[in-house]
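Researcher: Go.
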Amino acid sequence: MPKDFQIYLNLVELCRWLLPRVRVHFFQDWVLTFSRQVIVHSSKLPLVSGFYKLLMVAMKICSKTSYFKECQDDKSDHDAMDTRPSGSSDTQQCYLLVQKFIAEVLVRSRQYKDDLLSACLHLVLSLPVEIVAADVERLVPPLRLAIQIGLGYLPLAEAALDAMETWSNRLPRQMQPLFGRILPGLDEYLRTTPRQVSDSMETEERQRLTIMVLKSRRQASVQGRKLPLRVLKALDKTKQSDESALAHVRHRIIHLLGSLGGHTSLQLVRGADAHSRAAQAVAWDSKRRLDFAVPFVDIKPTISLDPFLPRVVELATSSSDRQTKVVACECLHSFAIYMIGKGARQPDGGEKSPMGKLYKRVFPVFLRLACDVEIVAVQLFRPLVLQLIHWLTSNRTFESAETMTLLDAILDGLVQSEITALRDFSAVCVREFLTWSIKQSSPQQLEKSPINTKSLLKRLFSLALHPSAFKRLGAALAFNHIYTVLREEESLVDMFAIEILVNFLLSLRMAHQDAAALGTQEHCCTAIKHLQRIISVKAKLFLKTTKNRGLPRNWKEADLKHVVGWLMPQEADLKHVFGWL
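Model: Structure:
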């Protein structure tokens, strides 16, 4: 890390610790100047988390001092970042400025992960009530995401509870209809019983303090004095340390539910029960697939692992207790290896894809755990997913059931809108899928029928033309990860380049109404520029039509002449769209 950036991060941490604690009323005159400068720099460098943390400090001070108390929601079309509303005070200007910036952050944060995502969520959850009141509903998705991530990162759970307590007290009418979507996420915190602290060093410390207290009490009774203050303080700290951070979060959740009242707090149980019952009502497979003969010396009893699999998956993905989560991940990893090995050993004349139904359930879980906040889960499942790709891309039949189950799980992770880390890892998996599909195919197979490549690109074309912006974004991300692999195989370039180009140009036309902060246009333009370079370098391939070349929809031939003839009217009709290129 550069030294100047390290200094900047240290300065951010100093501001976070100092400014909210020291004479906050002095900061009121500088809120607008400070916020404007931070927002301008954040707009130029949106991937620097320090700016979101600095603005969070300003918002916390505004909440403490009721800085926005006199502000009203301004529905005007002023661009608060560029213009100063005539006749408005500094407070009103700052209100409009922050409100507009938060709207951009809510869109932009869907592409972030790790510390950057955490900083954005902390900023959103620290907003003053006056800004929240303008549109509470748009803050529900980040609040739910913070609760979900908080299972593995408790400071974010604390921030989410702070926001819920403040908003429910200050905005009860607006929050009332939204609790049904928020409260079920808290159920996972209450299911796990926090373990007592069992660290040997802490145990020794408690024993030492107990002996010190007993000695002090004996001396005090003899001399007729009270216990020394240092002993009382040490004893109090020991009692507080017995309560884990998770237990503290659980207590806060219980207090919150109690303050909301019975009718509202019941939504936590209803939402959780509806989800769990629906998941448990349907068996994962109608047959027992995972029978395991326990190799005892004198007897080998057979145990069916199928009933345990759903519960192990639930604990591995949603347990808030780290020890339970780690053990569940290790158990699931063992189940996965056994499942894959047993599926590979099925006789040739037996049932095709016997583990197919189980794979549909567990493959998405493997992908999610491969980018979990728990490092043990990542270390276990990231190599497993990549090894699965290597194994299942050796298929010799088109649209092989098990291979397509894995591919569909990867693409589902690529187009989901909540977990950015999962989207990025899924894009890496798409690249690995194509790389190993090519590795395990002969040159003759690639020229005649590259089965897995066709399956992959067919699905990407469907996503590129989907009405959902996130599905189009996922298609562009996937191609931007695989184009360096694709361009090295001349047969694949000849077969698919023109079809890919046409589909992404049509996708770009659909993206012109998407929010700019979402990045759909940007990634789509990047994909088209990659294709432009590929076709320019290998232009001789496209002078004539070949029989294996894929044809875009409603095209009879596909060569450079027809591509140029199709592009000219498209550019004339939508010059403002293709002008991005």
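Model: The beta strands are 291-293, 302-304.
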